[in-house]
Amino acid sequence: MFIGRDSEIQQLGAAVAAAEPRIALIYGRRRIGKSALIRRALDKRPAIFFEGLENQPLRRQMQDFMRQMSEQLGRKPRDVSNWTEALLELNRLIGERPMTIVLDEFQWLANYRQELVAVLKMVWENYLSRAPGRTLILCGSIASFMTTKVLQSSALYGRVDLTIHLQPFSLAETSAMLKGRGLTEILDAQSLTGGVPKYVELLKNGPSVLQAMEKLAFQRGGYFLDEYERIFVSHFGRNDHHERIVRELVKAPYGLTRRDLAAAAEVPEGGQLSLRLYDLEAAGFISSHRPLDKPANSRLIRYYISDPWLGFYHQFVRPNLRKIEQGQKRLFDQVRQGAAFRSWMGRAFELGCLRHQTQLAEALGFAGVSYTCGPWFRAPRRALEGVQIDLMFQRADNVITLCEMKRQTAPIGKSIIAEVERKAGIIEAEYPRKTVQRVLVTGGPVSREVNASGYFFAILDSKSLF
Known about the structure:
Blueprint: H1 6-17, E1 22-27, H2 34-42, E2 47-51, H3 58-73, H4 83-94, E3 99-104, H5 106-109, H6 115-126, E4 134-140, H7 143-151, E5 162-165, H8 171-177, H9 183-193, H10 197-204, H11 209-217, H12 227-236, H13 240-250, E6 256-257, H14 258-265, H15 271-282, E7 286-289, E8 302-305, H16 308-317, H17 321-325, H18 331-336, H19 339-355, H20 357-364, E9 371-378, E10 387-395, E11 399-406, H21 415-430, E12 435-442, H22 448-453, E13 458-461
Parallel strand pairs: 1-4, 1-5, 2-3, 3-4, 11-12, 12-13
Antiparallel strand pairs: 6-8, 7-8, 9-10, 10-11
Helix pairs in contact: 1-2, 3-4, 4-6, 9-19, 13-14
């Protein structure tokens, strides 16, 4: 069963079906479903697939490229000594047949260098694209390479017809994969995996989502025990700075400014830090946000872990690796009983709401109004107290919608009203001409007192995110 991706399938299918030659570029983190998307969009159209080898030298890459060519076309290619000859041999063996050419894990095929990009551009324009019914699909899991070295390269700049940055599943897509599961389990799965399709599929196969995570992450031989090495190291090698940045951000769920992050991670605050932050952000492991009323170069920009699974691994799995190796039982049960896990799940719910801003706007009835949205925060200064607002919509109709997101097991009590009113008062002082609309988004029960208070403009349960 194939879940979701309707828009991406339509776009890629149209590119493949076009009469004129097309180049499509698809990127996204590993396990996100790029290869499955391509095969679905091709819909039995003729295609030849090549996949790069991780951490293999140029000669080994070319040898395997020629092997894959021979196996799929059923003809033995000539010996070649460089990429130009290899691609020209591909052109000779394909002949005049309509064909989609898929170069998967392109960053490995190219050995993270731009030489193959330049050669590919020349052979594509002068040979491969001259026959009718040709499409070239470049697919990769290292976003920083695919964007800077391919999409923005001098060779292919302006020549790529379609770019797809494949994202994790939405809650609706996760729900479709976990068909028959209750709302709580779906929220748990989304919080623990961030909607990465492969991870959701693994949780689906357990008797329950939490029991599946116990087996996969807290027992010897579990899939998730080595996943960090497979994912993170394949992106960045053994670069200590990337890992130090991640570890410090795990300790600060609401983020750190660039200066504070550099100091905590003991990384020089210069161009190299900018490059590493870009790498991590392009990979989808971290994100950055700034107050809505501040410019793009504001020093108040905060960086935070936005990949829930990465945060979960560092906070709960990694500290228990020795106990897991010793075969200790029911470790996840112990983790789930702690305040740290409950707090983490609350933050994961907030991050999920941030990803579903469009659904919230629709549920609140202002999707047709122009707006900007995101977190809003202010550090304490002089007589002014600090404030952190998880999600705020600044709307063109002079209304500010302040969203408070909470997920907890016990019913949310009346203390939430005082908490939100303090934040709303600060916003009203900052924007005296605006109407401030108070909204509660909850992933759990709400007390009768809060429901009966009439304080909130709306109380949305997590169903609205679907």
